[in-house]
Amino acid sequence: MPRCHLIVFDLDGTLVDSSVDLADAANHTLSVFGFPPKPVPEIARYVGDGARKLVERALPAGVTIDLDEAVRVFLGYYEESCTRHTRLYSGMDTLLHACAGIPKAVATNKPKRFTDKILKALRVEGEFIQIECGDTVAKPKPDPEMLRKILAPRNIAPMATFMVGDSSTDVKTAQAAGVVSVGAAWGFRGREELEKSGANYIIERPVDLVQLIG
Questions:
Q1: Annotated catalytic, 17?
Q2: DSSP secondary-structure letter at 158?
Q3: Catalytic member of 10, 12, 21, 24
Q4: R_g over Cα of the chain
Q5: pTM higher than 0.85, yes or no?
Q6: Of 67, 91, 105, 213, whose CB is crowded by the most CB atoms within 10 A?
Q7: Residues 191, 167: contact at Cβ < 8 Å?
Q8: What is the pLDDT of residues 102-120, one digit of tens each?
Q9: In whole angstroms, what is the distance from residue 9 CA to residue 124 CA?
Protein backbone atom coordinates (compact mmCIF):
# COMPACT_ATOMS: atom_id res chain seq x y z
CA MET A 1 0.00 0.00 0.00
CA PRO A 2 1.35 3.48 -0.83
CA ARG A 3 2.37 5.66 2.08
CA CYS A 4 -0.14 8.46 2.74
CA HIS A 5 1.23 12.02 2.78
CA LEU A 6 -2.06 13.87 2.17
CA ILE A 7 -5.74 13.12 2.82
CA VAL A 8 -8.40 14.92 0.80
CA PHE A 9 -11.96 14.68 2.09
CA ASP A 10 -15.25 15.20 0.34
CA LEU A 11 -17.65 17.16 2.57
CA ASP A 12 -21.32 16.09 2.34
CA GLY A 13 -21.74 12.40 3.13
CA THR A 14 -18.09 12.03 4.08
CA LEU A 15 -16.92 14.56 6.66
CA VAL A 16 -20.38 15.72 7.63
CA ASP A 17 -23.92 14.39 7.68
CA SER A 18 -25.76 17.30 6.08
CA SER A 19 -28.67 15.22 4.83
CA VAL A 20 -31.41 16.82 6.95
CA ASP A 21 -30.43 20.41 6.16
CA LEU A 22 -30.11 19.66 2.44
CA ALA A 23 -33.45 17.84 2.43
CA ASP A 24 -35.13 20.70 4.27
CA ALA A 25 -33.90 23.16 1.64
CA ALA A 26 -34.91 20.87 -1.21
CA ASN A 27 -38.36 20.23 0.24
CA HIS A 28 -38.86 23.94 0.84
CA THR A 29 -38.07 24.49 -2.83
CA LEU A 30 -40.49 21.76 -3.88
CA SER A 31 -43.25 23.30 -1.75
CA VAL A 32 -42.69 26.77 -3.25
CA PHE A 33 -43.33 25.29 -6.69
CA GLY A 34 -46.32 23.25 -5.54
CA PHE A 35 -44.73 19.80 -5.36
CA PRO A 36 -44.90 17.30 -2.46
CA PRO A 37 -41.87 16.70 -0.21
CA LYS A 38 -39.51 13.76 -0.52
CA PRO A 39 -37.86 11.63 2.21
CA VAL A 40 -34.45 12.66 3.51
CA PRO A 41 -32.67 9.46 2.32
CA GLU A 42 -33.99 9.95 -1.21
CA ILE A 43 -32.78 13.55 -1.41
CA ALA A 44 -29.43 12.56 0.10
CA ARG A 45 -28.84 10.32 -2.92
CA TYR A 46 -29.09 13.40 -5.15
CA VAL A 47 -26.15 15.11 -3.41
CA GLY A 48 -22.63 15.27 -4.82
CA ASP A 49 -22.76 17.17 -8.09
CA GLY A 50 -23.69 20.65 -6.90
CA ALA A 51 -26.90 22.48 -5.96
CA ARG A 52 -28.27 22.73 -9.48
CA LYS A 53 -28.10 18.97 -10.04
CA LEU A 54 -29.61 18.32 -6.60
CA VAL A 55 -32.60 20.54 -7.34
CA GLU A 56 -32.99 19.11 -10.83
CA ARG A 57 -32.99 15.55 -9.48
CA ALA A 58 -35.44 16.41 -6.70
CA LEU A 59 -38.05 17.80 -9.08
CA PRO A 60 -40.76 15.43 -10.31
CA ALA A 61 -39.98 13.85 -13.66
CA GLY A 62 -41.24 15.68 -16.68
CA VAL A 63 -42.10 19.00 -15.03
CA THR A 64 -41.12 22.28 -16.65
CA ILE A 65 -40.21 25.14 -14.33
CA ASP A 66 -37.63 27.91 -14.17
CA LEU A 67 -34.68 25.87 -12.87
CA ASP A 68 -32.59 28.98 -12.22
CA GLU A 69 -35.33 30.32 -9.96
CA ALA A 70 -35.68 26.97 -8.20
CA VAL A 71 -31.94 26.92 -7.50
CA ARG A 72 -32.16 30.50 -6.21
CA VAL A 73 -34.94 29.48 -3.81
CA PHE A 74 -32.95 26.44 -2.66
CA LEU A 75 -29.75 28.41 -2.04
CA GLY A 76 -31.59 31.22 -0.26
CA TYR A 77 -33.16 28.79 2.19
CA TYR A 78 -29.98 26.76 2.63
CA GLU A 79 -27.97 29.92 3.35
CA GLU A 80 -29.95 30.36 6.56
CA SER A 81 -30.23 26.72 7.58
CA CYS A 82 -27.07 24.89 6.48
CA THR A 83 -25.73 24.48 10.04
CA ARG A 84 -29.02 23.72 11.78
CA HIS A 85 -28.69 19.92 11.83
CA THR A 86 -25.37 19.27 10.07
CA ARG A 87 -22.85 17.41 12.20
CA LEU A 88 -19.55 15.59 11.85
CA TYR A 89 -20.06 11.88 11.36
CA SER A 90 -19.51 9.79 14.46
CA GLY A 91 -15.81 9.03 14.81
CA MET A 92 -14.70 11.82 12.46
CA ASP A 93 -13.29 13.92 15.28
CA THR A 94 -11.29 10.90 16.43
CA LEU A 95 -9.99 10.38 12.90
CA LEU A 96 -8.94 14.01 12.50
CA HIS A 97 -7.10 13.87 15.82
CA ALA A 98 -5.42 10.54 15.00
CA CYS A 99 -4.23 11.91 11.64
CA ALA A 100 -2.99 15.20 13.07
CA GLY A 101 0.46 14.62 11.58
CA ILE A 102 -0.83 14.21 8.03
CA PRO A 103 -1.90 17.25 5.97
CA LYS A 104 -5.60 17.26 5.17
CA ALA A 105 -7.69 19.14 2.60
CA VAL A 106 -11.30 19.36 1.46
CA ALA A 107 -12.59 18.98 -2.11
CA THR A 108 -16.34 19.53 -2.43
CA ASN A 109 -18.78 20.66 -5.09
CA LYS A 110 -20.61 22.71 -2.45
CA PRO A 111 -20.17 26.50 -2.85
CA LYS A 112 -17.38 28.05 -0.76
CA ARG A 113 -19.61 30.22 1.42
CA PHE A 114 -21.59 27.22 2.69
CA THR A 115 -18.49 25.06 3.10
CA ASP A 116 -16.70 27.68 5.18
CA LYS A 117 -19.80 28.32 7.29
CA ILE A 118 -20.25 24.62 8.08
CA LEU A 119 -16.59 23.92 8.88
CA LYS A 120 -16.45 27.00 11.10
CA ALA A 121 -19.66 26.05 12.93
CA LEU A 122 -18.23 22.58 13.59
CA ARG A 123 -14.90 24.11 14.67
CA VAL A 124 -12.79 22.08 12.28
CA GLU A 125 -11.84 24.68 9.66
CA GLY A 126 -8.30 24.81 11.09
CA GLU A 127 -7.78 21.11 10.35
CA PHE A 128 -7.36 21.69 6.61
CA ILE A 129 -4.46 23.16 4.68
CA GLN A 130 -6.65 23.90 1.65
CA ILE A 131 -10.37 23.92 0.86
CA GLU A 132 -11.51 23.72 -2.74
CA CYS A 133 -15.15 24.10 -3.70
CA GLY A 134 -17.42 24.01 -6.70
CA ASP A 135 -17.01 27.75 -7.22
CA THR A 136 -13.25 27.98 -6.61
CA VAL A 137 -12.39 26.00 -9.75
CA ALA A 138 -13.43 26.19 -13.39
CA LYS A 139 -14.56 22.55 -13.46
CA PRO A 140 -16.09 20.78 -10.43
CA LYS A 141 -15.70 17.10 -9.56
CA PRO A 142 -15.41 14.61 -11.22
CA ASP A 143 -12.94 16.78 -13.13
CA PRO A 144 -9.55 16.42 -11.39
CA GLU A 145 -8.92 20.19 -11.25
CA MET A 146 -9.62 20.43 -7.51
CA LEU A 147 -7.15 17.71 -6.64
CA ARG A 148 -4.53 19.09 -8.99
CA LYS A 149 -4.97 22.53 -7.46
CA ILE A 150 -4.40 21.07 -4.00
CA LEU A 151 -1.36 19.07 -5.10
CA ALA A 152 0.24 21.78 -7.26
CA PRO A 153 1.97 23.82 -4.51
CA ARG A 154 3.15 20.74 -2.64
CA ASN A 155 5.80 18.15 -3.32
CA ILE A 156 3.39 15.26 -2.80
CA ALA A 157 2.96 12.50 -5.37
CA PRO A 158 -0.59 11.67 -6.46
CA MET A 159 -0.18 8.07 -5.31
CA ALA A 160 0.73 9.33 -1.84
CA THR A 161 -2.61 11.19 -1.72
CA PHE A 162 -5.81 9.55 -0.48
CA MET A 163 -9.16 10.94 -1.62
CA VAL A 164 -11.98 9.97 0.77
CA GLY A 165 -15.53 10.28 -0.53
CA ASP A 166 -18.92 8.61 -0.47
CA SER A 167 -19.91 8.70 -4.15
CA SER A 168 -18.89 7.59 -7.61
CA THR A 169 -18.16 11.26 -8.32
CA ASP A 170 -15.39 11.18 -5.71
CA VAL A 171 -13.99 7.91 -7.01
CA LYS A 172 -13.95 9.23 -10.58
CA THR A 173 -12.23 12.40 -9.39
CA ALA A 174 -9.52 10.38 -7.65
CA GLN A 175 -9.07 8.15 -10.68
CA ALA A 176 -8.76 11.13 -13.02
CA ALA A 177 -6.10 12.69 -10.80
CA GLY A 178 -4.20 9.43 -10.23
CA VAL A 179 -4.71 9.48 -6.47
CA VAL A 180 -5.82 6.63 -4.19
CA SER A 181 -9.62 6.47 -3.86
CA VAL A 182 -11.12 5.53 -0.49
CA GLY A 183 -14.87 4.97 -0.42
CA ALA A 184 -16.79 6.14 2.64
CA ALA A 185 -19.48 3.48 2.98
CA TRP A 186 -21.15 5.37 5.86
CA GLY A 187 -22.17 8.19 3.51
CA PHE A 188 -25.14 9.03 1.30
CA ARG A 189 -24.53 6.57 -1.55
CA GLY A 190 -23.46 3.33 0.16
CA ARG A 191 -21.02 0.51 -0.54
CA GLU A 192 -22.60 -0.80 -3.75
CA GLU A 193 -22.04 2.43 -5.70
CA LEU A 194 -18.46 2.63 -4.43
CA GLU A 195 -17.75 -0.95 -5.47
CA LYS A 196 -19.22 -0.41 -8.93
CA SER A 197 -17.17 2.74 -9.45
CA GLY A 198 -13.93 0.90 -8.65
CA ALA A 199 -12.78 2.51 -5.40
CA ASN A 200 -9.32 1.29 -4.36
CA TYR A 201 -10.50 0.80 -0.78
CA ILE A 202 -13.85 0.98 0.99
CA ILE A 203 -14.12 1.66 4.71
CA GLU A 204 -17.17 1.33 6.95
CA ARG A 205 -16.26 3.87 9.66
CA PRO A 206 -14.09 7.01 9.73
CA VAL A 207 -11.68 5.44 12.20
CA ASP A 208 -10.99 2.62 9.72
CA LEU A 209 -8.92 5.12 7.72
CA VAL A 210 -6.38 5.20 10.57
CA GLN A 211 -5.73 1.47 10.14
CA LEU A 212 -5.74 1.77 6.35
CA ILE A 213 -2.98 4.35 6.22
CA GLY A 214 -1.05 2.59 8.94
A1: no
A2: G
A3: 10
A4: 17
A5: yes
A6: 105
A7: no
A8: 999 999 999 999 999 999 9
A9: 13
